[in-house]
Amino acid sequence: MSQTLLDVKKLENFIGGEWLETGNTTPVNNPATGETVVEVPLSTAEHVNQAVATAKKAQKEWALVPAPQRAEVLLRVGNLMKERKERLSQLLTMENGKVLEEARGEVQEGIDMAFYMAGEGRRLFGHTTPAELNDKFAMSVRSPVGVVGIITPWNFPIAIATWKSFPAIVAGNAVVWKPATETPIMAYELAKIFEEAGLPKGVLNVVFGKGSSVGDAMVHHDDIRVISFTGSNDTGRNIAAECGRQLKKVSLEMGGKNAVIVMDDADLNLAVEGIVWSAFGTSGQRCTACSRVIVHEDVKEELEKRLLAEMEKLTIGNGLDESIKVGPIINKAGLDKIKKYMEIGKNEGAKLLAGGEELTGENFKDGYYFAPTLFTDATPDMRISQEEIFGPVVSLIPVKSFEEAIEVNNGVSYGLSSSIFTRDANRVFQAQRDLDTGIVYVNAGTTGAEIHLPFGGTKGTGNGHRDSGVQALDVFTEWKAVYVDYSGKLQRAQIDVD
Ligand code: NAP
User: Which of 148, 333, 335, 408 is most buried, by the most CB atoms less than 10 A from its CB?
Assistant: First the structure.
């Protein structure tokens, strides 16, 4: 199946508009079946040097292309993605495992981002403002930064790349992109689309390979002036430390420990739908996945009952089958981590109500599958309530009041997404004020971001920057203040003012 969808058996780096063979490769396996889908290069620091040198040269000319013309390339990219949506979605399911419906949603997110950022080509707004002296004009404009390095994870292999590369490119930068080794096919397909859309050679470069070699070389490269990273907290912290040493700009989007709050006045059926979708979709492997449910004690038992009934209906298997709702875990390491937390949860005294085990047997042969899992009577300080598990595992934490629910929600080191189910308008507005996450949902689960809003989190989730939305442009541009004095004489600010 893979070879009919994919036109190559081995991927090559895309540098300076050329497809270049690299030597060593490693297989990319479909997590649902264990089958090898493609071979991906294991590039080295030398390939990064080559890509950065090419990008640096190309960027100088690209920055001089008027932004509305740069945006036209993105418009063509969006149209090509739209034409290929179904094929891209199937390939995405094959490399990542998420079910086809979700893969289509992810590709659509990239299409939306292309059209949205194409519009920015005619905005990229700066400011004009009065100057304090006569016959003087003042404004601020955005300038591209130069060569930007993009490092992306396997769980959203195309959407996250578009959140970063599209604003970078429309703003006049050149990009060196290292996709996750587990999911390189979307990078290959997107690079081909950019090539067909007429992006000048060298403006987008893809270097495949491990984080420890390619990613590390990018972080250390003097000519990469921005690193935009999405991935785990440990990797992000190390990257930030190195970028700090070099005074390199770095944007980090990392993990989450996202919660749904269910109040005593909530529509319980709606809450159950929201929890199931955001906890077990993508097998819980979303940075915004719900992994805690903070429930008012008065509705706890009823919520448990309805959740268990809904979880019974989840179909698990290969995401290419349209009837499947929950796909595999990305790899053995991911599966082992989830299994480890089952022991931790039980030892801490949480009660296991459903799941808790790896799925084996004929239907799950050669893939990595884990049963949707529900713990209850968890306390806020337990490790299963504090640490990112990145699997289909939810812990119910009972609370006595709205105030306690907010406190529990905020009592973790992450700050990505939170949600509240309530019918009380006062609580809705208090919650959106007091929840300390970067994203808040009311009467919906913790997932479902739209691309024209800023995406990212507070505390241990990020470092103050945002992906997507107009805010992403701040990562990929420098503000320049410009003063034009047309008085014909020297006017000194703060001094020659009456
Ligand atoms: P990861 O292990 O940190 O990997 C992310 C990327 O960083 C991969 O491309 C990886 O390369 C690369 N990398 C690894 N070590 C590196 C190093 N020393 N220097 C430079 N790059 C390096 O994270 P993951 O397990 O793939 O992704 C899951 C994590 O991402 C979760 O914690 C999830 O919450 C988070 N996430 C956050 C968001 C958000 O927007 N907040 C969105 C999605 C995911 P290789 O894997 O190829 O070696």
Answer: 148
